[in-house]
Specification:
Layout (H helix, E strand, L loop, with lengths): L6 H19 L3 H20 L5 H9 L8 E10 L2 E7 L5 E2 L2 E3 L6 H13 L1 E13 L13 E13 L7 E8 L13 H12 L6 E2 L1
């Protein structure tokens, strides 16, 4: 369970995980009924502490049937001429490393290349894994019901040119000492410091947790 999540959200997540596992593996009709009730209770907890309706929460939860596992947020980090590539999110106006949720059927490096291309216009080669973070522990992270991990890869540009997208309003390179306002739960200063450290020392081990 994450340290900065309120207790009620941690409890709801745990109930959801237990219910999903039970529904996936149980064959007993009475046990299945109990697990469905656990799923309802987790939705009721969230609904009681948010503006969401129980029905919409249940619909969202049941879209991902099976054993509950963390979602994956993948980011590409590019440093060129001492500056780091960032894109500006249309949703909140903050700047972040290009990236997004991993898609089924793609390897992590394929996700990175696609996301960087779509959000910044640049083609990249993926060089190494910089860090694996618990995305829910990032300061300022929204209270998401789903647990998520964040993977950051160091990349080099192989082609393309700066080009915003439907999700990004601007693309630019920034010096470490002159960073723009960040979309913190997507990309924090701590994450960028780790990227610069890996760029300076290629033998630096992957950071995690």
């Amino acid at each position: 369970m994450t340290e900065n999540a309120p207790k009620w959200l941690s409890w709801a997540r745990e109930l959801f995980s237990l219910a999903e596992a039970g529904l996936a593996y149980s064959k007993n009709e009475f046990d299945l009924g109990r697990y469905r009730r656990l799923l309802e209770i987790s939705a009721e907890i969230i609904a009681s502490r948010s503006e969401l309706e129980k029905e919409s929460i249940l619909e969202s939860l049941t879209m991902q049937a099976g054993y509950a596992t963390p979602k994956i947020d993948v980011r590409g980090a590019v440093i060129q001429d001492g500056k780091i590539l960032l894109v500006q999110e249309r949703s909140d106006g903050g700047w972040t490393l290009p990236g997004g949720w991993g898609d089924v059927g793609e390897t992590p490096s394929e996700v990175v290349r696609r996301e960087v291309r779509e959000e910044s216009g640049f083609e990249v080669q993926v060089e190494k894994l910089v860090a694996v973070y618990d995305a829910n522990r990032v300061p300022g992270a929204p209270l998401e019901f789903y647990h998520a991990y964040k993977l950051i890869f160091l990349c080099t540009i192989t082609g393309g040119e700066a080009r915003p997208s439907s999700e990004t309003s601007a693309v630019d390179f920034f010096e470490r000492e002159h960073l723009p306002p960040l979309s913190n739960y997507r990309t924090s200063r701590q994450m960028l410091a780790e990227v610069f450290a890996h760029f300076a020392d290629p033998t630096r081990p992957t950071a995690f947790d």
